[in-house]
Amino acid sequence: MRRVRSITPHVYGWLLLTPAAILLIAFTHYPTVATLVQSVFSKGTAIRPSAFVGLNNYRLLLEDTVFWKVLWNNVLFGIGTIPTSIALAILMAVWVNGKLPARALTRLAFFTPTILPMVAVANIWLFFYTPEIGLLDQIGRVFGFASHNWLGDPDTVLWCIVVMTVWKEAGFFMIFYLAALQSLPPELEEAGRLEGASRWYYFRRVAFPLLMPTTLFVSINAVINSFKLVDQLFILTKGGPDNASSLLLYYIYEVAFSFLDVPYAATLTMVLLSALAIIAVGQFVFMDKRIHYR
Amino acid sequence: MSRQFSRDLGRGLEVAAAWLLALLWISPLLYAFWSAFHPAEYATHFELGAPLTLENFETAWSQAPFARYFLNTVLLVTLVLIAQFVLCTLAAFAFARFEFWGRNFAFALVLVQLMIMPEVLIVENYTTMSHLGLVDTILSIGLPYMASAFGIFLLRQTFKTIPKELDDAARVEGCSMMQILLKVYVPLARPTYLAYGLVSVSYHWNNFLWPLIITNSVTTRPLTVGLAIFGAPESGVDWSIITAATLLAVAPLLVAFLLFQRQFVQSFMHAGIK
To answer: Which of B103, B120, B242 comes nearest A123 by C-beta?
Structure first.
């Protein structure tokens, strides 16, 4: 743009931005604020309209045992999925990046779950977990284990969901590590080999630290996904038995669209929004650290 | 000698482990193929000589309006993609090339959507859609995703790498601002459009939660929602037919992926690194 004091760039800039801005405001910023407002009102009924109740919904939240259970499930779900899928992603990327026979085919196998819809693959996994006839029980029987109702047992159900989610996500994260590994200068590994460093040593002391920005990026995505991925629950468990596999977003869905309690769903959404805000702040803080690796 | 041997053994074990993991990863899909192409009695036990059949696909296709679901999904994905390309291109161009008042603040507001995705705001967005009278339309499924922060960010990064001399030259040639955008910027950003397009199409082909909430009829429901209803235990359909339906639903994307595997993988990489 010419460096004249003119109003043109401002007009152009805003005009170009307007269509996107309208939609962003309507479906991101406005609903965020509306959620906050909604959370301080009561649920309206035919006789009693919705009224301002201050922090009453939040008090209900603190007393709601289902909420605490679901939140704890979400923590367990995160602990179960994030480190495992990242570790597997790194392993896959290292393998697929190296001189592996049938490399393209192996990469294909790892990546395929990523492009399939969660609902569709959940249908397949449902069969694995089915008691008696399911694949898991069939394999178990060969080794003499008794049949188990994997999805019906509160002790195992969440871990069944975790395993399936790791399977779905690891290949996706692998892509980012693969890209990062390919951008590492090949001289590094060369030098390591000349110095007699083992592959493990090279990975631990050279490659892994250089992959740190990728790990950070992937971790943030993984944390966000752990709050966002609930599609599989609709097919596998519907959050049950007794909310043993329910996650925060699934509970929000239930409260809003099955129990039709919009203000309380908004209150729960506020918890989710706060969690995401904490992640955003965390990312901001970590971003400074990541410069040291560059 | 023995050192060489142990190195070879280690290498061999590693290859075996990699292949085993790959096999494990693809096995759910292999199982789906097995079950879909064999009669129902073979769905739960495996026999080499089991007869092949296409009956499961025929049954699935005739028991639910999958053709309509396909059409809905294709319409949805196309609508979202076109809208995203137009809106994100304009916004990205603004951020990359104009110094306007409040630019940084506006950009920060755009980035908010990277954290607070439409999935999180289902409750309030449903209310908005019902005020707008858009519940149960294909437009309402796509609307919250059209102004995509991810797309704006990606295109802005690409546009910023395009040397300014190029648009100065185009201006000397007498091009208007819009012509510069369409003739200089958009063609040079083609790889980014391809990458973003593939990511977007596969995302919306697979999206489930929001479409489930906002649709309630056959004429709007996308494949994922149709499949979930079809496969629900209450519907009493057996495994072979469910897996056949599942394969039908993923087939276009899977075939596209197998044909353009390189582009897919590179697109996801490209989109992730930026």
So the answer is: B242
Question: Which among B88, B118, B253 has CB closest to A20?
Answer: B88
In the numeric block, which tokens belong to residue A75?
């923590």
pTM of the shown model: 0.89
What is the interface pTM, i.e. ipTM, of the complex? 0.88
To test the contact with chain A by mutation, choose from B116, B177, B210, B214 the residue with the greatest count of A C-beta atoms within 10 A, namely B116
DSSP reduced 3-state for B48: coil
**Which chain B residues are within 8 Å of A23, Cβ to Cβ?**
87, 143-144, 146-147
Give the pLDDT confidence score for residue A3 in this predicted structure: 52
Cβ distance of A102 and B125 shorter than 8 Å: no
Query: Cα B199 to the chain's mean position, in Å?
Result: 5
Q: What is the architecture, at CATH level 2, of domain B65-273?
A: Orthogonal Bundle (1.10)
Q: How far is CA B42 from the centre of its chain?
A: 33
Alpha-carbon distance A151 to A240, whole Å?
Answer: 8
Longest dimension (CA), chain B: 78
Q: Report the CATH superfamily, name and number, of domain A59-293.
A: MetI-like (1.10.3720.10)
Joined tokens for residue B207: 């999206």
